[in-house]
Amino acid sequence: MKVILDTDIGNDIDDALALSYLLRQPECELIGIVTSCGCAQTHAKIASAVCCAAGRKDVPIFAGTDDCIIIEQKEKYVPHATILDHWEHHEDYEPNQALDFIRKAVRQYPNEIVFLEIAPPSNLARLFLVDPEAAALLKGVVLMGGKFGEGNQKNWTQHDPAKRRTFSVFEPNQIDEILIGGALEPNACIDPYATAVAYQVPLPLHRSVGVDCTSQVVMSSRDFNEVLSQNNEDHLHRLLLEMGNMFLSEIPYVTFHDPLPTVTLFNDSVCKFTRGNVEVELQSKRLLGYTYFEEDVNGKHEVASSVNPQAFFKEFFSIV
């Protein structure tokens, strides 16, 4: 399967885990990686570090847009940028090159490429707006984004200074102030107008895995370290451990948000999908980016309605 990955890697460990799976999945032909959100060039360098650690320097990487559509970018920092001091990576990434790469790639491989979106869909929306013909040449889009059920999240705001994370990507620093305590999902609400555009274009495959499902795929810090420490000679595992442990001192578990939709590309039995239509809230200032889902057997979208965590972990670690 030909895949283009769009990522804001470097903010949390889950992007790096998703990329690692693609790099080692024998059925994946990773056509390229594009980055977005604030500091897109830094995200590109971190993606390069993961590729180098995996022995995959051949994968093309392009920095995309730093900006959201209409509203200000809230992703301001890249906590994992510290790895660039001592892990091999490429340095020269020009800004705003992602869109041209995507447009050329889909014309080279018409109706063959799945666009895997594990970041706010800023690049994807610009593709749909600037070049509708190129968008029509995609085989499909799979997004980690939205919230389509209650899951394990709470719908109220928590203002507890003791729970503020040292490593914050955002301004304001407290993530709950952005997510309204769990009512919103980061990728959908960081660039809400881009999210709305991403759901407007009909595609043969338009699939979303929301935070209500991804939040159920959790591994303790102890198990995470144990699994990835089994092969100390594996440079990729060592890098993932370093990136993961930056956060595990504060949050003693890893949530596999981005790896879950990534795995469904090659084993969709780990989730159950329901067809319907997704709409994105653009009227309420407080709830910009909120995702509404209405079930419809003839709808143009699919969303994950349940997940089998055990099946996911079996698949993921059989590859990574």
Protein traits:
320 residues; alpha/beta; 9-stranded mixed sheet; two-stranded antiparallel sheet; 11 strands
Explain what the structure shows:
The chain has 13 helices and 11 strands. It is α/β, with parallel strands linked by helices and 320 residues long. It has a 9-stranded mixed β-sheet with strand order 3-2-1-4-5-6-11-9-10, with helices on both faces. Helix 2 links the parallel strand 2 (29-35) and strand 3 (61-63). It is globular, with a radius of gyration of 18 Å. The model is unreliable at 152-161 (pLDDT under 50).
> Biggest sheet: strands, sense, closure?
9 strands, mixed
| Radius of gyration, whole Å | 18 Å
Q: Please, what is the oligomeric state?
A: single chain
Percent range for helical residues? Answer: 25-40%
* Proportion of residues in extended strands: 15-25%
How is this fold's topology laid out?
Elements: E1 2-7, H1 13-24, E2 29-35, H2 40-53, E3 61-63, H3 98-108, E4 113-117, H4 122-130, H5 132-135, E5 140-144, H6 175-179, H7 186-190, H8 192-198, E6 206-209, H9 211-214, E7 218-220, H10 221-228, H11 235-248, E8 253-255, H12 259-264, E9 271-280, E10 291-295, E11 301-307, H13 309-319
Parallel strand pairs: 1-2, 1-4, 2-3, 4-5, 5-6, 6-11
Antiparallel strand pairs: 7-8, 9-10, 9-11
Helix pairs in contact: 1-11, 2-11, 3-4, 4-8, 10-11
